[in-house]
Fold Diguanylate cyclase.
Amino acid sequence: LLIENHLRRALSRNELLLHYQPKVDSRSGRVLGVEALARWENPELGLVSPTRFIPVAEETGLIESIGDWILRTACAQNKQWQDEGIPPIVVAVNISATQFRRNDLVRTVCAALEATGLAPQWLELEITESMLMQRPEHAEAILRQLAAMGVGIALDDFGTGYSSLAYLKRFPVRNLKIDRSFVQEIHTAPSDAAIVRAVVSLAKSMDLDLVAEGVEVREQLDCLASLDCHVYQGYYFSKPVPAALCASLLRQS
Ligand code: G
Ligand code: G
Ligand code: MN
Ligand code: NA
């Protein structure tokens, strides 16, 4: 209840902000995109993790206004980077299960793009396999509308849920993000390398983009490269950082 009461006022008190984590091509070293990650800094509670406050936002309905703010802020930031002359990149925004279930997601996304002037091709939404599988017909209809607009869809934490390959083919998904649990020991655990090899092959045959999450050390990166997976996110390149710091990473890239 304490956290809920504070969260109700978080937006009007400017306590929410977004950090951005680069997505990098290990061959060129270039930043291809960024993932927006919400942060909440409350004077009494301190820094609260999204793993704590997003579920509260979902239970209380606050996710409607907070999710809308996250989308708009990420789109506005990306548009601003473009206006500053930084080569265009994709910004990815995490969508919660409750946001995805609602009937107004497409409208909310349209409104954010219109309000900020960001072209749809520079926005990607990250959803999870389980969100697709709960109401497949609903999911398919939403994803088709978003794809028709030109907005990209990424499957986050890929490999930890249970999407059937038939569904993967049916949904207009652009990008698979290999969950970091498979990357963590990829250089020492042959079974993890085998899983990643299978996902690489799946992505190739279905013409999907691929990102490895949670790359922290050089050995993981080398192993991913040997498996022909060249795009990654992780502390090895950069943790999620404030927009200003992210802009300087983008300018250097
Ligand atoms: O960045 P961090 O490791 O603290 O994120 C923890 C979890 O919170 C991750 O699973 C991430 O997807 C989720 N998360 C971070 N920002 C957002 C957001 O803006 N919206 C939603 N729905 N989830 C987020
Ligand atoms: O569920 P999702 O993939 O959206 O979660 C993203 C979360 O992963 C963010 O909270 C981010 O801080 C975290 N993250 C990003 N890179 C790394 C990494 O290299 N190692 C670890 N342990 N976490 C990471
Ligand atoms: Mn994510
Ligand atoms: Na993930």
About this structure: The two ends are 44 Å apart (CA to CA). The chain has a mean pLDDT of 96. Residues 37-38, 49-51, 54, 70, 94-96, 240 surround guanosine-5'-monophosphate (ligand 1) (CB under 6 Å). The domain at 2-252 is CATH 3.20.20.450 (TIM Barrel).
